[in-house]
Amino acid sequence: MENSTYAAPLFPDRAITIAVTGAAGQIAYSLLPLLASGSVFGSRQRVALQLLDLPVTESVLQGVTLELEDGAYPLLELPVKYTSVSEEAFANADIVVLLGSFPRKPGMERKDLLAKNGAIFREQGLVLNRVAKQETRVLVVGNPANTNALTLSQFCTAIPKVNITALARLDHNRLRSLVARRLSCAVSDVHDVAIWGNHSSTQYPDVSFAYTSGVPVGKMRAALGGESQLQSEIIPTIQKRGAEVLALRKLSSAMSAARAIGDHLRDWMLGTASENELVSMVVASDGSYGIEKGLMFSFPVHCYRGGRYKIESSLSIDSFSRKYLEITQNELISERDEAMRVVSKMC
Ligand SMILES: NC(=O)C1=CN([C@@H]2O[C@H](COP(=O)(O)OP(=O)(O)OC[C@H]3O[C@@H](n4cnc5c(N)ncnc54)[C@H](O)[C@@H]3O)[C@@H](O)[C@H]2O)C=CC1
Ligand SMILES: O=C(O)CCC(=O)C(=O)O
């Protein structure tokens, strides 16, 4: 991971406590070693893990815990806690990573999961509302991630909305890597790609502000073949990348998702490698770019040490981009309305 290895620990005198739900699942199996090894929060930050999954997975979760212990990670507090009781997993957590949910199967759109996962995120919002600290940072990964984060935030008013985010970093990393492959340059040379909107096939992967050492800002669309090439090939490739992996593996992306979660958490908590770097995060809209206030929308943001971020609100959006922003905003509004209809019936 970029930047974190030598970072000063966020909590020099104690471990950072991270609750992970869905901890017996496939993303967790790639994520937990990243957290335990120090590659997210730095090589001097102690880490305490509180793992949650359903009672039916108890033996798997116990096996994962044994493996973490057998990893003999110097930074990891022992014993690793695991439970099927949300209150126990979330108590005193500095960070809560919500993977636990019903996953998409081949042929399904992520929004087909709204009803099933809306119930889970309502329930977890209510529990967090009772036991979480105000400063707890929450990252929603379970799909449909934007709308699950919105549902959770409706039921968890104890945590300020700025502390609740969802994952768009996998899409951001996919785009960054695609640009590097097309331009035959290093991924680390590609800066300021952006993902806008929903973590779904309507997301808008945007290269308008991207640059490399050889391609200055404003010239990236042309360097990638122009708007028609973006429209017919590059944008759809990123929009459908999750489905492509799912069709090939018969399982959704997990290794790359874990890596993206590490990147999201590291940048959010420690700040980006360079102060001006743009990264993509799903956050509550502040009305920038005309996006409805409160909608959980992926924006390009700047991150600052200590778990702070700011939406970059001064980019200029042309008609090519505007059309994509509207499509993804409309999808999020309809997901939100459907999710609120579903969860209101549960009250
Ligand atoms: N936002 C993003 O970029 C991405 C999101 N995802 C989503 O992340 C989620 C997790 O993916 P995988 O690990 O591959 O799924 P998985 O099916 O391997 O694991 C999910 C785990 O969650 C557990 N679970 C289900 N309901 C739970 C609850 N109420 N409380 C606690 N645990 C619960 C299950 O028992 C299972 O162990 C899925 O919703 C997937 O669609 C996956 C990749 C990228
Ligand atoms: O596509 C899915 O439903 C799960 C995995 C995912 O969200 C992704 O790979 O982007």
From TrEMBL:
Gene Ontology biological-process annotations: malate metabolic process
Residues bound to NAD(+): 53, 117, 141-143
Annotated Lactate/malate dehydrogenase C-terminal domain residues: 169-339
Keywords, in A-Z order: NAD, Oxidoreductase
SUPFAM superfamilies from the UniProt entry: LDH C-terminal domain-like (SSF56327), NAD(P)-binding Rossmann-fold domains (SSF51735)
Domain Lactate/malate dehydrogenase N-terminal: 18-163
A molecular function GO annotation: L-malate dehydrogenase (NAD+) activity
Active site: 199 (proton acceptor)
Binding, substrate: 104, 110, 143, 174
Gene3D superfamilies reported for this sequence: Lactate dehydrogenase/glycoside hydrolase, family 4, C-terminal, NAD(P)-binding Rossmann-like Domain
Entry's EC annotation: 1.1.1.37
NCBIfam families: MalateDH-SF1, PRK05442.1
Family the entry assigns: Belongs to the LDH/MDH superfamily. MDH type 2 family.
Protein known as: malate dehydrogenase
Source organism of this protein record: Cyanidiococcus yangmingshanensis
